């Protein structure tokens, strides 16, 4: 049985954030940086610029700063100059451009419409319910417009209506593409609130928002009785984010140290005060450490090659630990491969990239504890909101670095604060402070 979830959603001028709790335990952190454009989910009419058979990809002009790429196995007969409708599956990462797919997905409340799919798939329904729904849907679902069902509304007709609405959306885009020359953005699908709600729609017990305007948006997807407004929850989000991003994490009598750089992540499990305990204790501590490590890898959205140096144990216990780790890793959809133990007894694995690392969304320099300007402005925005709502302040002064001030000026941050809250925000540039002062 799936646990009930509580969401805390905090939207803003520079960043949107969301925490997801299940049975009181944090299981997901979403941070969407509005300043740094994210193309994931967008649908384009693209033009094929180049084909690289050695890499097995075609490069697509989508009208953005960087060309996207798509695997040739998706479009084996494509030629240079061809125009096609694609969706961005993964945004740019490092030197790579956005990854595209020809399998366009339209998410709904109870189902996903997938262009090119000829199936009706189940993703959460009881087997008997799915079979009865399947028998009704198979007469309605069109060729190459398959679906994945995640939940069942009270009235079956609502499911049909949702399918028809998503189909109309696709037909409109397809028809529009016939009269537009590539490259062209056909649909901007980035909607942070909709995205986090739909990912958790079937198990939401409560949604806490920090702004009353967001409550009305959330109410489009879930019952209003489940929505609560709490200004102070924004501070709670920061507390959890900084806790997750700590370099050193303590548990029982041991600790974990995480060093995360661009190419790889090194994690060291230290015995702490458990020296002198028996070998079985070391195995148990390693298992507990593995639980904590995989939770942190997910919350930090760590990716690339990962090395984990566990407490030394006997060879047969190392195999037991490896099997335990494989079981944990099977629950993480981003784990690409567990390579096993190196000659030095360090576990090596890889985790697929999916969006930006939490570290890069929060820090300019992690080891100097230097926050990035976008995150600093989000914190300042929340402080403005609390001062206005709780104390009816008319003005506020913030000291920031030149870099943060330049971003604030470029996006007209002060003007937006004035427009949204009726509060006069004044900046003072001071490069001697670490992050900000309010």
Question: Overview of this structure, please?
Answer:
By secondary structure, the protein is of the alpha+beta class. It has 4 domains: 1-37 and 190-237, Protein of unknown function DUF3822, C-terminal domain (Nucleotidyltransferase, domain 5, 2-Layer Sandwich); 39-188, OB fold (Dihydrolipoamide Acetyltransferase, E2P); 246-351, Aminopeptidase, CATH 3.40.630; 366-437, no CATH class. The protein is 32% helix and 31% strand. The protein has 11 helices and 26 strands. The protein has helices at 127-137, 156-177, 192-199, 212-218, 233-244, 279-300, 315-329, 358-362, 373-391, 402-410, 413-421, and strands at residues 5-10, 15-22, 25-33, 43-52, 57-61, 68-71, 83-90, 99-101, 105-107, 111-115, 120-122, 145-149, 184-187, 204-209, 227-229, 248-251, 254-260, 264-270, 304-309, 335-341, 347-351, 363-365, 370-371, 395-400, 424-429, 436-437. Strands 4, 5, 6, 7, 8 and 13 form a 6-stranded antiparallel beta sheet that branches. It is globular and about 65 Å long. The two termini are 46 Å apart. The mean pLDDT is 89.
Secondary structure layout:
Layout: E1 5-10, E2 15-22, E3 25-33, E4 43-52, E5 57-61, E6 68-71, E7 83-90, E8 99-101, E9 105-107, E10 111-115, E11 120-122, H1 127-137, E12 145-149, H2 156-177, E13 184-187, H3 192-199, E14 204-209, H4 212-218, E15 227-229, H5 233-244, E16 248-251, E17 254-260, E18 264-270, H6 279-300, E19 304-309, H7 315-329, E20 335-341, E21 347-351, H8 358-362, E22 363-365, E23 370-371, H9 373-391, E24 395-400, H10 402-410, H11 413-421, E25 424-429, E26 436-437
Parallel strand pairs: 1-14, 11-12, 14-15, 18-19, 24-25
Antiparallel strand pairs: 1-2, 2-3, 4-5, 4-7, 4-13, 5-6, 7-8, 9-10, 10-12, 16-17, 17-18, 19-21, 20-21, 22-23, 24-26
